[in-house]
Queue: 2 jobs
Job 1
Amino acid sequence: MKNLKWWQKTIAYQIYPKSFADTTDSGTGDLQGIINHLDYLKSLNVGAIWLTPIYPSPQVDNGYDISDYTAIDPAYGTMEDFERLISEADKRNIKIVMDLVYNHSSDKHKWFLESKSSRDNAKADWYIWRDPKFDGSEPTNWRSIFGGSAWTYCEERKQYYLHTFAKEQPDLNWENPDVRQALYDAANFWIDKGVGGFRIDAIVYIKKPKIFIDGKPDSVDGTFSIHNAIANTAGILDFLYEFRQKVFDGHDIFTVAEANAVKPEELKFWVGEHGAFDMLFEFSHTNVMFPTGEVWHSWKTWKLTKLKAALTESQIATANNGWYPIYFENHDKPRCINNFFNVEFKTRNEELLAGKAIATILLTLRGTPFIYQGQELGYTNTAWDSIDCYNDISSIDQYNWAIRDGFSASEALKFVHKFSRDNARTPMQWSTQLNAGFSTAKTWLPVHDDYKKVNVEVEDKDADSILNYFRRLIEIRQNSEVLIFGDYEEILTDDENIYAFARSFEDKKIYTVINFTMQSIKFNADFLKDSKLIISNYGNIQAENLRPLEAAVLIHNSE
Ligand code: NOJ
């Protein structure tokens, strides 16, 4: 049990390079900006940095549309900058983790340009091409994840190509062994550069069904969600095992795949010793507000037992199969302070208690915690005045979708405020200087207007800041066998106000208790008898009572 790998004991930090730090006065972040702040990340004891894509890209989906898999986008710097990042990070014992976007490329990738040029070129079947239906319309009624048909017509070939996401993100044809080999070669290129792991994007979509047929429409426009048509198609594991064997095996790296359609009973085939990856990012806990799929205007308030059940299910499922990547934020999600409480907070103090409460869960569950940039500063969502202010392609789609389904423009904008991916993408706030010290130029996305108070410089000096709370929690975790190795057990399972769990290792036990409400809650604290406080977001605890949003970690006295 004690022979865990380095990445099972580390803290991972996700950087959105475009918004991290700009050193060229361009208004977008760059690799030198990351190098300049490695000591900051070291102050959080981070051991791995996941970079969202930094490859050349037309940026239709902010880098998830890649036009060259083995180069650096000039906006971020050069290959030499990347090599310097690896070696500077290495000096601080930090690994760099790259994002592999292998379900699709950009439509500007040379492979696609060739593929679309005729029906008989050398790369003609590197993407997924189909003839029109008899009436000239799309081969199926599948709806892409960013809205509209999942098929786009190509005049040169007089055929349609498939795209799970935007039309500028054509799906690669994994059935073709040359395509697979080209992708493996690209990943091995980065292994040779010394990366410490990979996050693998949208992997559940790489295998397509043998026959393409219309689905029963699930939208007023007669379309059917492509996710339901193709996610986790039988046979996908053959590709994944080959991927593992040709790329990952034999290297001291970790893999974490984005996979939101894998059922707990299938997990053993996906992760662990005999699975394809080390970890899976799944969405069960981040989607508790959506009754079916991520349709923003369909969100509903949710019961705490639903969130707890999702977390507990993942903890149990990964107790013996693979390992859990713990996260509450990433570049696709709203800020956790706004997302995990059925409450609109009125004061910064409430927000800070909430942010610290989520941090407490993040750093005391079993698995590898992933902090998303800004989460450690207590970032909150933005709310811009018009849909035109938003950059995120899915925000625009979801806005139009809400209007199509009968909501007014202002209601549709409210859904965008609540769930836009831009909430997570505003620039990093380093100081009280111009543009929060992120850039001296006009920034690619506006800086959050709270930056004078919410920034590294100010929070560094404040002992009670959420940043310093993160640092304390991380230190506690890194020094605790119980928190690194210990088993997980949920307590007070049916309670709709409190999330409580125990971690135990040998004869030692640590408890985490969180009040998710704005009321003081009396509870049966028998299980905490003989335990003493390690850390809490109030600084102290009361017997048998949890104050609003209170989070506490206690250790049973026997340690
Ligand atoms: C998941 C990524 O996290 C997201 O940002 C992107 O838009 C899609 N995959 C498509 O690559």
Note: Residues 61, 64, 101, 165, 201-202, 258, 331-332 surround 1-deoxynojirimycin (CB under 6 Å).
Job 2
Amino acid sequence: MTTSKRSRLDRFLSAKLGINRGDVRLMLAKKQVLVDGIAATDIQQQVDSFTHVALVDQTGCEPFRVLQDNQPQYWMMNKPIGVVSATIDEQHKTVIDLLSVSDVSDLHIAGRLDLNSSGLLLLTNDGRWSRALSEPKAEVSKCYRVRLEKPLTEDYIQAFADGMYFSYEDITTRPVELRIVSDYVAQLRLVEGRYHQIKRMFGRFRNPVLALHRLSIGNILLDETLAPGQYRPLTDMEIRGII
Ligand code: URA
């Protein structure tokens, strides 16, 4: 995973080039280091994994030597049922297998869905962005549409809002907003994502979940033009809405 961890320019250069800090200072004095295309002068300048860093020789005439050139990627996919939310799996096709993009090596999933769940899945190589999305205190809400085996009753609304105690994790779930759409269909809004949380919550009512489809994460809504298995890059607005 690309972590987008920040580090000081002198530390970055000495690690990357195997040189000492004195040599780094010298390179900066000679304007041999370009950070995002601008000659760096400050050893304390912060760089992260998406900062473009290149070297140029003293004359400025030789071609650049690029030390780092990572492009952040942000994708939304309409995850189909039967495909695993993982980067590698020995048994099933993974969501990464569905992507025909040039560099998938650093992509990871920001919020998994179960094998038999479908809908909005976010993939990125920006670890800072995906952490901001999943950090509990950020309370990014996720909406799901759920189809059940047995009819819903009004009792579900209060039980989901009150939270349920999960002894395995020793936690009580945060309030979940449940809206009854029809006898067998509910729409839910959660601000956390415990393991199989929705299925376990309906399990308390002995009501199996037949279909689970994620509609949104924060301000990012599943693009309805995407057929199952299709994907598109996120827009700037969608990306910025999370951070
Ligand atoms: N809760 C579940 O039980 N499954 C999912 O895929 C997502 C939330």
Note: Residues 130 and 203 are 29 Å apart (CA to CA).
